[in-house]
Amino acid sequence: MLRYFTHPVTHFAQNCSIVYDDGTLQAAIIDPGGDIDRLLAAIAGKGLKLEQIWLTHAHIDHAGGTAALAQRLQLPIIGPHPADQFWIDALPQQGAMFGFPAVDAFQPTRWLQDGDTVELAGHVLHVRHCPGHTPGHVVFHSPEMGRAFVGDVLFAGSIGRTDFPQGDHATLIASITQRLWPMGDETVFIPGHGPESTFGAERKTNPYVRGT
């Protein structure tokens, strides 16, 4: 069975999620923004074997630890969509601006496109390209778990910022209504910050997307 746990990292309290198979203990990490030693300790505490890095987008709080972690464990970096290349290239500058330890840019092992899949221990998650917060943002959906890892597209009671370079409010709303809502009201989503919620709850109560 596929399981996960979430570990907030850095002063941005970014929700880094670790997805794993409870039989083989094979694991993938979603958005290792930093605090790599703490993340590895949490992973080791569960006896997991970390095999992949999956990225929703390339803002510093989500991707800041990626290069160091990939180099340390020789892990493939999967995602995001290639439209976020300029954010990856700017990671060293982002890190300096926001007080992170030295951060390196990187080259993803595999870029992701809308409709792609990622696989862990025989479990398949579906990839949706959801631009608006960043142009290359992707979301990972596991119908098996009834979970979606949505990065900074949607939050409990809010939505992602669109005032960064190449952000766009209308595009973000379209991503939410056209790409997330069809996953089903009962789907639980894990946002990049803050508590989990369901798509159904946000459709009813979120002031930014209520009634959509």
Automatic annotation (TrEMBL):
It holds the Pfam family Lactamase_B. Residues 13-193 form the Metallo-beta-lactamase domain. Its cofactor is Zn(2+). Keywords: Hydrolase, Metal-binding, Zinc. The keyword Signal does not apply. GO terms for molecular function: hydrolase activity; metal ion binding. InterPro entries: MBL_Glyoxalase_II, Metallo-B-lactamas, RibonucZ/Hydroxyglut_hydro. The keyword Zinc applies. This is MBL fold metallo-hydrolase. It comes from Caenimonas sedimenti.
